[in-house]
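Exercise 7. Given the components listed, write out the predicted structure of the assembled complex. Treat all entries as one system.
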Amino acid sequence: MKQRLLSLSTAFLFAAAPVLAQDGQFVLADNLALKANWAMSGDDAFIGAHAGCYEGLTRVSQDLEVEPALATEWVLVDPLTWEFKIREGVTFQDGNPLDAKAVSDALNQALKSEVPVKGFSPKQIASVEATGPMTVTIKTNAPLVTLPGSVANPGTAILSPAAYSNDGINPVGTCTGPFEIVEVDPQQYVKVKRFDNYWGGKATLAGGEVRFIPDANTRGTMARTGEAQISRLVPPAAVATLSSGGDLTVLEVNAPRVLELLLNNKRPPFDNLKVRQAIRLAIDTTGISNALFEGKSPPAGDSFRSGEAWEAPNAPVIERDLEKARALLAEAGVDPAGLKIEILAYTGKTELRDVSQILQAMLTEVGFTVDVKVAEYSSIEPDMLSGNYDLALLSRGYLTDVPEPIGYLTADYSCEGSYNISQHCNPEFDAMLAAAAGDADPAARNRAYGEMAQYVYDNAVTVFLVNETVFDVASSGVTGFTPHPLNHYVFDTDLNVK
Amino acid sequence: MPKIILQRVTILVMMLFIVSVAAFCVPLLSDGDPARTILLSRVSDLDLAPEAVEAIRKELGLDRPLPVQYLSWLGAALQGDLGYSFASRQPVAAEIARALGVSIILALSALGAALLVALPLGTAAAMRPGGKIDGFTTLVIQTLVATPEYWFAPISILVFALWLGILPSAGWQGWESLVLPAMALMLRPMAYFTQVTRASMREVVAAPYITAARARGLSMNEAVVHHGLRNGSLPVVTFFALWFAGLLGGSVVIEVIFAVPGMGRLLYEAVVNNDVPVLQGGFVALVGLSILINTLADVLYVLFNPAMRGSHGH
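Answer.
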């Protein structure tokens, strides 16, 4: 209730006009905060990347292509061996030169960390060695065709040897990026200044600050007052007001994330395809998109957004059809009136409560008796993972470790998947996954991902509700900023403000 | 006086033990796996690598039996080592000291400002019961008591940060960033202080020693200022201590809205993240401080009020 009242009052706040903008430092109001003493395995590494400090061997472009960064080229020598050529002429911010040894030392530090970096852990990586002055060889335990994408992850950033000690990681003055971290207050901010010897050319901005602001409404307010030149992830409800003044630019980000209704594919009656299809037909995804997301997050067919390289070839948005839904239930021999089902949702994402109530109403119209349970994610997760549930709402990112969805498809839909909440298991699907994982041709892999998405759609394993859109806000004078789809870079060489 | 201190020390030791056990048990209320919850606090991704979960379980000693975990913490705590935060891996004592410093400044500023308004307003209301000032004071008290902080905070941002542009809307850098959170926090204590001052001063105004002072030729205002204020403000001391102890860990909403890195936010995040060492250390620090503050308030009460000294053995 308090949260709702807060949202209402803050919505009123957004209706006001801004008065003045502050001069001085460029401030990014970030939704992330330093949490684990710069551990590479978590969000802290993303703060290093936002700050323009961290760089990896590769980087991911706006259209999700893997591009050279500290490595200029890479080649798959044999199915288990990758060779990376390190960029010449790069120096760390502490003056040390970048060479193969520095890179292998940094990557071995990541491998040795107590909590492994996702996508680059000893489970996947057998060894990292400097095999020449400017050549690094990475051996994997199994074919890992997505490795060039893995080393773009901020968790695999290359820092100077001085950054690593028994006390953890210290990024101050030890990165290679266009900006150097000069001051850290773990509770509040990271301050940066331009690194004039950056290999990619001098950045335009002299410096700035990444400020940790946990409350989305406050981040929006900071954009309005001019205290922040960029505010990340502002509340969708505030977008209309924020964009109306002309002083701010609201930037829509097509997040690689889908809001989905997971069905327990092992538990009757959801183990029956017709029942799953009936549930999908009972849900009006277009209505949910319009009612709760003002149409900005489009209704989903499959998990992937229309236009993405791995979208399912034929997965249109399902139109709601209650008659068909009832007919399918009858064909399956299921009387919804005799069924009491429960939808799980978690509090960490405020809109899930509303979505669950809308779903409750929609499914009730087919005849089901539906309960809703909304709780902290950590308290419902054990039931979800163990398959002790009926239906569960989830906001799921599908490009979390590499810039292609193989990690998501494996974790969520393979028989041994670590996040297989759907309890789905089909050896044929696993075979498709294995084939994609060993295919060195990116285009062929993308087609394979599309086929797997089509399989999930055709079998109604999950009901996909909306492809999520998130919103950043920038002062109208800000140039050189485009929100990155994987949330990697903000302070970059072109970033500037008039 | 020694009796008060002995009583309080006994209570302190018992309370610290109880809260440390209670804090240790908080994560048990959730069905979740503590190792997963802690890892979830560090990453935005819900799909956790199983090897990472196991690594963190081992790293934090969560694979040991619960009594062993508690006794291990207690042994270290008795030697002054509150351990390391599960989430941030920073020393708990340092995290608490930093957050407590922020919360003490915020609470004292809010309560100090509340007193500055409440004492004269309550006194003025008590001097003319039923008068215009009294009516106005009653209206203010009723309004402020019913004003939620989470409503007032955005309104104050609207006025001072957006419209007037004279104060920052969030953060904790410089005195300017103290003003709005302190304003939001001072409202309810101000209302209570005013109410208590008014009630207390009404008794004082009717007291024989005020009549005697007036008989010696002092005006009512002089009599109240010279002889009544000290007595009239005694109950406020007790309320001040109670509010101070409460605000140290109890201003979560304000600390989140204004991005203030204080004790409330630290403990709130620790609860969400199952960060047991921070919860234990934080609760122990707050309870210890709370008892200390109230003991000090009692001592001050005795010092202010000579009549109380006799009742404690003088």
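Discussion: Chain B touches chain A through 56 residues (CB under 8 Å). The radius of gyration of chain B is 24 Å.
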